[in-house]
Amino acid sequence: MEADILVTGESGTIEAPSIVYLIDADEMILVDTSFGNPESMAERHPEFRCHRTTDQQLEAAIQSEGYACSDIDSVVFTHFDWDHCYNLSLFDEDTKFYIQRQELAYAISPYPIHAARYEAKSLGLTPPWLSYDLVPLDGETQLCDGVVAFPTPGHTVGHQSLAVTSPTGTTIVAGDAIPTFQNISDDTDTPQRCGLAMNEIKWWESADEILTRGSKILPGHEWDIVEADAAGRFDWTRHSNTVWTTPPHLARFAVLPTRNGVINGCGLLIFLTNN
Ligand SMILES: [Zn+2]
User: CA separation (Å) from 121 to 31, 125, 156, 181?
Assistant: First the structure.
């Protein structure tokens, strides 16, 4: 995909992982569900070229972390961009699907400039979540002990993130509110760098809130997360002055790339772009 989707001012074609997170708390919570099968994504979004290996499929990724889809009590969608909300049929009927009410309302009838992102009915498409029973959230909501969903609008109208508090601090599962660590690098001229956003002012305020609330940040499309070791550890010190320890259990899997895209090597996820 185009690099500037993730970080404004960057150029060229990149691959990016599409990451989901598992939060093992009083409830087992999955954050986001990634994109659908690559063939149908190619039809719906020809400007991207999605791909994934068998073990990057959602069910396999969850299993590789030692869980089954039936263990998931709740799925929290950060937002309804198409690369975050497929694969719902994998879950039991009593699994709860959370989305902010504002995101749901807008995704059902977006302005034409955002219709493709939401696979809107105005384009003759059916978004993957449409036939499911969703639980709309109105603002900040505690989902279970230590896990709070809170609005982080900007990337989309009703984007949300999760704050996971443990004895070692608070980790924010940021989704696309902070898609990569590049968006929050320690560059003093531009301490935060926006990516694609429906509202850049709200994006900035949400990024600020995430940095204030969390000592660790888990982005939605960051290679370093994918390359973490089996216990979910990676070198957080590269991205922060804080010495971070183990993030919440994390699952990873795969992705999409793009338009005339060159798929560059690395077997895992990808969101590739352009030329
Ligand atoms: Zn995304």
Answer: 25, 5, 18, 34
Structure tokens at 217: 């940040």
Distance (angstroms) between ligand 1 centre and the Cα of 94 equals 26
Task: Decide if 102 contacts 153 (C-beta within 8 A).
Answer: yes
pLDDT at 169: 74
**Each residue of 68-127: pLDDT tens digit?**
999 999 999 999 999 999 999 999 999 999 999 999 999 999 999 999 999 999 999 999
The whole-number pLDDT of residue 270 equals: 27
Centre of ligand 1 to C-alpha 222, Å, is 10
Specify the CATH number of the domain 21-36+69-253.
Answer: 3.60.15.10
Instruction: Write the single-letter amino acid at 247.
Output: P
Those residues whose beta carbon sits under 5 angstroms from the ion ligand 1 are: 83, 176
Please indicate whether residue 209 or residue 11 has the higher confidence score (pLDDT).
209
pTM of the model: 0.86
How far away, in angstroms, is 265 Cα from ligand 1 center?
21
For ligand 1, the distance from its centroid to the CA atom of residue 176, given in whole angstroms, is 6
CA 24 to centroid of ligand 1, rounded, Å:
23
Q: How far is the CA of 78 from the centre of ligand 1 (A)?
A: 9
